[in-house]
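Quick one, tokens below. Sequence please?
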């Protein structure tokens, strides 16, 4: 184990066992170095790494403090690395999305109200009429994240957001394939909305799972051209 690893594990242990609680200021460098058996350089690097992960909050002239450690906030930090994944990694995340988005749709069906149904219906109207990739991507994301937020679990919402972040960037280069995918995507959205409107968790969950599975199918079929399109920044329509 390197000195940096020792410093990291030591700080994490102090936070995990409650010695340092959310809002607490870290002890002085000298005290921490002595307690953990590391140099100041290793300690400072460990603090910088934990600050980048949202575990610590470093305030200029004041010191470093333990963050509030909300699950949703810590999950959001994963977007820094998820955004680097190639297509193979994105396909693995889509498998997770299928489970999580179907679960969030089921929870949302039990909590949905007429106002949210109206908002979702309006979003779908804009999605169905949009032919601009960037606009379509933003509207599609808003639709799915509205449903995730209705599930009532901030950590779940944050995780869905992170898992969706990378796949939103991929475009399908062939206009015929892109048009077919959009048709399937639009139909899938409507099926999800019907399940929510009926307040039927089973129907909403099944529709959400089928919708993500359809996206996964298209990406697996078109993986080579999709990867090329992502590199070149071309194409017209992306997966939902």
């Amino acid at each position: 184990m390197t000195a940096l690893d020792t410093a990291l594990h030591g700080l994490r242990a102090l936070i995990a066992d409650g010695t340092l609680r959310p809002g607490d200021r870290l002890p002085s460098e000298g005290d921490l170095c002595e307690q953990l058996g590391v140099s100041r350089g290793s300690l400072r690097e460990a603090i910088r790494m934990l600050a980048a992960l949202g575990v610590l909050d470093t305030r200029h002239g004041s010191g470093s403090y333990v963050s509030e450690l909300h699950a949703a906030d810590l999950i959001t930090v994963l977007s820094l690395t998820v955004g680097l994944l190639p297509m193979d990694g994105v396909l693995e995340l889509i498998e997770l999305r299928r489970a999580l988005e179907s679960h969030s749709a089921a929870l949302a069906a039990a909590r949905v109200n007429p106002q949210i149904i109206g908002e979702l219906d309006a979003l779908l109207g804009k999605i169905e009429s949009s032919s601009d990739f960037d606009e379509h991507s933003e509207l599609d994301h808003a639709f799915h994240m509205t449903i995730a937020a209705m599930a009532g679990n901030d950590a779940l919402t944050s995780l869905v957001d992170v898992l969706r972040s990378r796949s939103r960037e991929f475009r399908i280069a062939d206009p015929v394939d892109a048009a077919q995918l959009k048709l399937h995507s639009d139909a899938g959205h409507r099926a999800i909305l019907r399940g929510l409107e009926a307040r039927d968790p089973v129907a909403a969950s099944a529709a959400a799972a089928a919708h993500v599975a359809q996206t996964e199918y298209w990406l697996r079929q078109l993986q080579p051209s999709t990867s090329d399109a992502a590199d070149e920044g071309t194409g017209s329509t992306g997966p939902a």
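DSSP finds twelve helices and two strands in the chain. The longest strand covers residues 56-59.
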